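Consider the following assembly input.
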Amino acid sequence: MQVVPWRGAALLLCCACLCAGVEKDCVLGKVGEPVLLPCLYPALSTFLNFSIEWRKYDKVVFRSLWDEDGNVETWSVNHVRIPTDAPLTGNFSLELPSAHPKHDRSQYSLFLLSGENQSAPLCTMCLRIAASFRTPEVKKEHTEENDESTYLCHSSGGYPEPVVYWLINNSQEPPNGSVRTQAEALPDSHLYNITSQLTVNIPKDATVSCTIKNPSMNEKLTSKYGASPNPVEWQASHGMWIFSTVLCVVVAIMVLAGVYYQIHLDRINKRRKKEYEEPQRGRRYQWKQAAEAMMPEQVETDV
Ligand SMILES: *[C@@H]1O[C@H](CO)[C@@H](O)[C@H](O)[C@H]1NC(C)=O
Ligand SMILES: *[C@@H]1O[C@H](CO)[C@@H](O)[C@H](O)[C@H]1NC(C)=O
Ligand SMILES: *[C@@H]1O[C@H](CO)[C@@H](O)[C@H](O)[C@H]1NC(C)=O
Ligand SMILES: *[C@@H]1O[C@H](CO)[C@@H](O)[C@H](O)[C@H]1NC(C)=O
Ligand SMILES: *[C@@H]1O[C@H](CO)[C@@H](O)[C@H](O)[C@H]1NC(C)=O
Ligand SMILES: *[C@@H]1O[C@H](CO)[C@@H](O)[C@H](O)[C@H]1NC(C)=O
């Protein structure tokens, strides 16, 4: 209920400025891209001599002066501008050609000046700057001391300073004091290089993931270590697989060849035996009987 009268007063104060409200959400600019700070106002063709000023806090960054003959004089810092037909359309939006982290969290206001009089701000906008980080890289440092493993997570090119967190096996937070994170703003671009170090005592097959969260961009970038076998391990297991397949095939061929050879030998033997046994059947039969007679006794002694 408090908002409505406040808004009404503001509207009166700014002569029906459409973008009234200091408390409005900030405009988000992406580093390197143009940003528009919107400000709409009723057309100003009825004024005689007047000028407008966009100020960053109290420093003028853009000024335009129209006189009664329709001439216009403009002045600006860093090539910021407004549409040239602004007084006709009422679109006084300020365009910054390229967002830079040094503009972050600044407040811009538009003023109308006529003679010696100055209006209340017609529009006040705050500007937030952000840039995406690169997908982080996680690697393991090879230290064999104390059974502890050290993992490093690195990313760069983002803004503002992100939140970094680690998870072990996709769910467990690392113990207190095991993470050290360092963010470094590069001098020219103001973009951040970020390196986080996790030192823990965990089994070798545990999965470790590093997430870089940039709330301004509504972005979360995660990289894992140990989730999928790394290329070297993959090649090794691939090699093992090929080796065992080849081994299986070779063994199978040898077994088949052996069986075939055995069958072949058996056939030859049978033929030979037949040829040999034909005349001596009687003798072999007697031997067989003798063997059968012995068998039961053997079984009994065994049991
Ligand atoms: C408008 O400005 C011009 C010069 O900038 C001046 O000569 C003229 O008198 C001004 N007119 C009014 C109404 O103030
Ligand atoms: C105001 O001007 C800007 C820049 O020319 C344009 O992008 C924007 O759409 C305009 N807004 C309206 C409401 O016309
Ligand atoms: C400035 O404002 C005063 C009072 O608000 C008004 O009397 C005067 O005419 C205005 N001057 C101009 C140049 O608009
Ligand atoms: C880690 O520290 C935080 C606050 O610093 C505390 O709330 C939390 O209980 C601690 N966790 C462990 C496991 O010690
Ligand atoms: C920041 O990170 C980039 C990419 O990893 C790297 O090339 C550069 O050297 C780093 N700069 C500093 C100052 O650490
Ligand atoms: C994580 O998982 C691995 C294998 O699934 C297991 O050996 C290890 O104990 C787990 N680590 C923790 C800290 O839970």
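The chain has two domains: 5-130, 137-225. Ask yourself how this observation constrains the way the partners meet.
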